[in-house]
Design goal:
Elements lengths: L1 H14 L2 H4 L12 H4 L4 H8 L5 E4 L6 H12 L1 E7 L5 H16 L3 E7 L6 H4 L1 H7 L4 E6 L3 H4 L2 H4 L3 E4 L5 H15 L7 H11 L3 H12 L9 H7 L12 H15 L3 H13 L4 H16 L5 H16 L3 H15 L5 H16 L14 H5 L29 E2 L9 H15 L3 E2 L4
Parallel strand pairs: 1-4, 1-5, 2-3, 3-4, 6-7
Length: 438
């Protein structure tokens, strides 16, 4: 019988993925996350005190969230329970809570690990609250999404958020060496291919070990160069969820690179998004916005370029259409910048809201009936084309609202011409109030 058990155990061990076989047994074996686990760092200090609070572990896939949760339970001497929010529900949680109550009666703590905790909806998240309040469980939730967006405030207030980082290249190299030691053989890769393998993992330790496991199965006499490695391992898609935070982080990086007049950074973020499968029209729409918000009348051609790029992509499709977007992106990043039109709009909105439904001044109102003419509609209106310099200087603001200055061109690009015009007209009109005078 013991021989049979040993045989089954050996078979089970062999069938386990390499990433599971190399899972750390103690905290000190964890690769990476020095900012949390290094001497004097937040999690290391919590473990020293043995007073572990409920935690939300926020980090990308393959950075060690599950492993860390298991080892935390061991470190504090707690029973480990696990639920996945992908397949589990409230009924599963209630069973764990009952088990945790029994554990407490026997003087044992319970650490409940909830993987992908952001998958629980807001109502489901409320189920944790009473058990946390009563100290029945210590919750460790894992999420790849920003907790401030995905978890409700009541649950967040009872947990401490720890941010785990993607593994660095030296961390991934350490994992490869562990894998080679475990298999008692070197990976069949040239130095350049080994570097490429680490880059392909994109900071994900689990993916790297899965890659390595496939490579260990190759004939030992074959050493792969980078081209051959790409043929054996299909390139991994970058981590990117078009419906979640990564989607908005990258488009924000693209937009700010344009605003900061850095075409090279803008091109990098554009290619990151395209490689991850982003809809080019989503990017094109953001370029239209950037043309109005960050360039405006400093270069009136910017908006034309953005609209043309969007239409060119719709006409050509992919992949040829991407080049039209790239051309526009470079144009916008290298154009003179001004947010004067954007700020003018915000200032005008503020004043419009603050002053209610004021009527236009009577002198600019038409008088199609005798009664309206008798009431002063259109009286003393000056037709600007008949005025000297074709400029009357009349006020077009409500009579109760002295004229304001919302648009303040910055003198860059075409706005330099506009600034000179406005200054000339202001000298003829007299000094008006600005929105800041309110």
């Amino acid at each position: 019988m013991p021989q049979d058990v040993s045989l089954f155990e050996n078979l089970a061990l062999k069938s386990r993925p390499l990433a599971d076989k190399l899972r750390p047994k103690v905290i000190s074996e964890i690769v990476g996350q020095e900012h949390l686990l290094g001497e004097g760092k937040p999690l290391a200090l919590l473990l020293q005190s043995k007073n572990l609070p409920s935690l939300i572990l926020w980090g990308p896939p393959g950075c060690g969230k599950t492993t860390l949760a298991r080892l935390l339970a061991r470190e504090i001497g707690a029973e480990f329970e696990s639920v996945s929010a992908i397949v589990g529900g409230v009924a599963d949680l209630k069973k764990v809570f009952e088990t945790a109550k029994e554990n407490r009666m026997h003087g044992k703590r319970t650490l409940l690990f909830v993987d992908e905790i952001h998958r629980f909806n807001r109502a489901q998240q409320d189920v944790f609250l009473s058990s946390l309040e009563e100290g029945i469980i210590t919750l460790v939730g894992a999420t790849t999404q920003n907790p401030s967006f995905e978890l409700n405030a009541a649950l967040l207030s009872r947990c401490r958020v720890l941010v785990l980082q993607r593994l660095e290249e030296n961390d991934l190299e350490a994992l490869l060496q562990k894998a080679e030691d475990y298999n008692a053989m070197a990976l069949p890769l040239t130095l350049e291919a080994r570097t490429l393998l680490i880059q392909m993992a994109d900071g994900d330790g689990r993916t790297l070990l899965n890659f390595a496991e496939s490579l260990f199965m190759l004939p030992k006499e074959k050493t792969l160069d980078p081209h051959e490695l790409l043929e054996v391992l299909q390139k991994r898609a970058p981590i990117y969820d078009k419906a979640q935070e990564g989607h908005y982080n990258l488009i924000s990086a693209l937009h700010k690179s344009i605003r900061g007049s850095d075409p090279d950074a803008a091109l990098y973020w554009f290619c990151r998004m395209i490689e991850a499968g982003e809809d080019p029209l989503f990017i094109a729409r953001r370029l239209v916005r950037a043309a109005s918000e960050d360039i405006g009348l400093a270069d009136p051609g910017a908006l034309t370029q953005a609209i043309a790029a969007k239409e060119a992509y719709e006409f050509l499709g992919s992949p040829e259409g991407e080049l039209a977007i790239v051309q526009c992106l470079i144009y916008l990043a290298t154009a003179p910048k001004s947010n004067a039109a954007y700020m003018a709009y915000k200032g005008a909105v503020k004043t419009a809201k603050n002053h209610g439904s004021l009527s236009p001044p009577k002198h600019i109102l038409n008088a199609p009936t005798p009664l309206m003419k008798d009431l002063g509609y259109g009286k003393d209106y000056i037709y600007d084309h008949n005025a000297e310099e074709e400029f009357s200087g009349q006020s077009y603001f409500p009579e109760e609202l002295p004229r304001r200055i919302f648009y303040n061109p910055k003198g860059k690009g075409f706005e330099d011409t506009l600034l000179k015009r406005l200054k000339h007209w202001q000298s003829l009109r007299g000094k008006p109030k600005t929105d800041e005078d309110e």
